[in-house]
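MODEL INPUT / OUTPUT PAIR
PAIR INDEX: 1
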Amino acid sequence: MVKLKVRKVGHSLGVVLPKEVINRLHTQDGQTLFLVETPDSGYRLTPYDPAFEQKMAKAEEIIDRYRNTLHVLAQ
């Protein structure tokens, strides 16, 4: 567990992430992070866009279903 302190940033509030958290998230200055609500009413901080992940899962499903057609079209 990492303790974070909420601080005023302009007219908003923010938190400063310690170096070990930044390294573990594989992120850097200027990159976007996503705060995702979990089913147990908690939150998860991730560098991965969950909406993009869902779109990619759907794309993989379509690719699997039309594999032969896509192979023919690729030639």
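PAIR INDEX: 2
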Amino acid sequence: MPRPVIHQPDDVLDAVRDLVIEAGPRAVGIRAIAQRSGAPSGSLYHRFGSREELLAHAWLRAVKRFQDGFLRALGAPDPREAALGAVAWAVEFALASPDDTRLLLEHSRLALLQGEPQQPIAEALARINAPIVSAVGRLAAGLYGSEAPEAVERVFYAVIDLPVAVLRRHLHAGTLNDRTTRSLQSAVSALLATDDVNHIERNGNRDEP
């Protein structure tokens, strides 16, 4: 019979995440993770392979938790409602999961990992943002009738770059609350205003002969 799993993977990954947040990536080693999670070092090596794998799993878990709701919001039929719903979800996620949010906002994948994880985790890291890129392209097409670089860049500003900056500032200041959603949605609406949509449409196929 297989040995029962005493220490759940999420408990271990919580320990990894919390150590990163409290002391930075360099403070995260197998011994520290074992002490924080209560899992023996041997079982960590057996289940995850290495420190790099543990950090990668913790980071990927936070990304996937965020992306689940974000992509669901971006899939709304009305493109403007999709954009506003996506930024509302970003605030909702940050309020409900501040630790995962801090991990993502304060520590990039490149900053976390000193080496390259082995397959298949390396493949998962390489493709993790592909659904977001595709969804932003579809949103640009819905808003402006074009996936031209100008249109896609504007949507990235609105639903990715601006919310990240706002959330980071409010989390650091301890001022994030439900009112942040309304302010952020107003800013996003202004950023997505279609005053030059005709310019975007005219230049949507500028590379074609």
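PAIR 2 NOTE: The longest helix spans residues 149-173.
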